[in-house]
Amino acid sequence: MNLDFSQIVPYIPFMLKGIGVTLGFVSVSILFGFVLGTGFALLKISKVKGLVWFADAYTSIFRGTPLILQLMIIYFAVPQLTGYDMPPFLAAVLAFGLNSSAYVSEIIRAGIQAVEKGQTEAAQALGIPYRPMMKDLILPQALKNILPALMNEFITLTKESAIVSTISYLDLMRRAQVVGADIYRNFEPLLFVGLIYYFLVMGLSLLGKAMERRLRFGD
């Protein structure tokens, strides 16, 4: 085995810039997915069957098809139909955000339904309108319970973010591919970026555990 990591040293700053690029679009995607997922979660627990069916169908489609297929449709197929030249960043955020919202909606729905029904009944008995009840009473408790699951979703998106390299978005993975093509060696840059992904995921995992401990301490 002939390994030579010295060749990637000049490219290290270029690859390290991919950390901010990756975390940037993943953060925007998870925020978009959280907002949209919360809306779909509320639709799923509504009493209007049409809204429930729509939310369930949405979730089924985005959870039942590969994320990379969704990314390709948004980046390549949508411009074909609309004539709009989709920027890689926007395509990545839309694909990851829409996909994440399907999973987040299920997480939040489960969290809402895990809150004791007595609290909802008490709020209704006091005449508290539905929106303030959800915003100030039910959702805060649900979010506290589902924080670990939401953190896992963020970690999953961070790992899966590597597929945006297929649309030439200069994330960590794409930068490793660029370096590999430039020096005609792929193992070293890929290993280097793989270690970055590992430390990112471990860092996010530790952050999630710290937040969980803080919430438990707050109880």
Automatic annotation (TrEMBL):
The chain crosses the membrane at residues 20-43, 55-78, 190-207. It comes from the Bacteria. Pfam families: BPD_transp_1 (PF00528). It is a multi-pass membrane protein. It is found in: Cell membrane. Residues 19-208 form the ABC transmembrane type-1 domain. Keywords: Amino-acid transport, Cell membrane, Membrane, Transmembrane, Transmembrane helix, Transport. SUPFAM superfamilies: MetI-like (SSF161098). InterPro entries: AA_ABC_transptr_permease_3TM, ArtM/GltK/GlnP/TcyL/YhdX-like, MetI-like, MetI-like_sf. NCBIfam families: HEQRo_perm_3TM. PANTHER family: GLUTAMINE TRANSPORT SYSTEM PERMEASE PROTEIN GLNP, MEMBRANE COMPONENT OF AMINO ACID ABC TRANSPORTER. Belongs to the binding-protein-dependent transport system permease family. HisMQ subfamily. This is Amino acid ABC transporter permease.
